[in-house]
Amino acid sequence: RRVHGHNALISEIDSHEQSVDQVVNAAKEMMGDEHFAADEIQSKIDELTSMWDKLKDKASSRSDDLQDSLEAQEYLLDANEANAWMAEKLPLVAATKGSYGSNQDAINSAMKKHQNLQRDIDTYKKTIDQLADKAAACKAPDKEVTDTVDLECA
């Protein structure tokens, strides 16, 4: 929602750039004609271009911050899903001695289930590695990060 609103603001800023350029060019033309207020006109040109550059820089910085925040939120969502998956699988690997079965068929069945689980874990490792790479690309501030996130991802 914020990204969408900010993109609308960026579009609005971009749509005014031609007007700003026209004002600056008209002012320079007046100065070229040796207007009596040339010094004041130059001062206003400098002020206008400085403010325009600050506006564009701040808008760009805000875009970067919003993108970083979006990436961090996506990371947290993925990390929460991974935690839920692992929490679901943990009881399956936490069997206690004596719960493997009382005969060879039961033990073979438990072994087959364990092998299937091991394949699932090996397959899911790629997802965990991708999350680790995303986390390494994020720069966390000195304060604790929560689901309201203040991360910056590269």
Query: What value does the average pLDDT take?
Result: 85
Give the helix level as a range of percent: over 70%
Shape summary = rod-shaped
Rg over alpha carbons: 30 Å
Determine the oligomeric state from the structure: single chain
Strand pairing plus helix content: what structural class?
mainly alpha
Sheet-strand content, in percent, reads under 5%
**Which strand order spans the largest sheet, edge to edge or round the barrel?**
1-2
Total number of beta strands: 2
Give a quick account of the main beta sheet: strands, pairing sense, barrel closure: 2 strands, antiparallel
- Low-pLDDT runs of 5+ residues are 147-154
Distance between the termini: 21 Å
Q: What string gives the helices and strands in order?
A: HHHEE
Please give the count of helices.
3
Question: What's the quick description here?
Answer:
This protein has 154 residues and is an all-alpha fold. The chain has helices at 2-32, 38-93, 104-137, and strands spanning 138-139, 152-153. Residues 147-154 have low confidence and may be disordered.
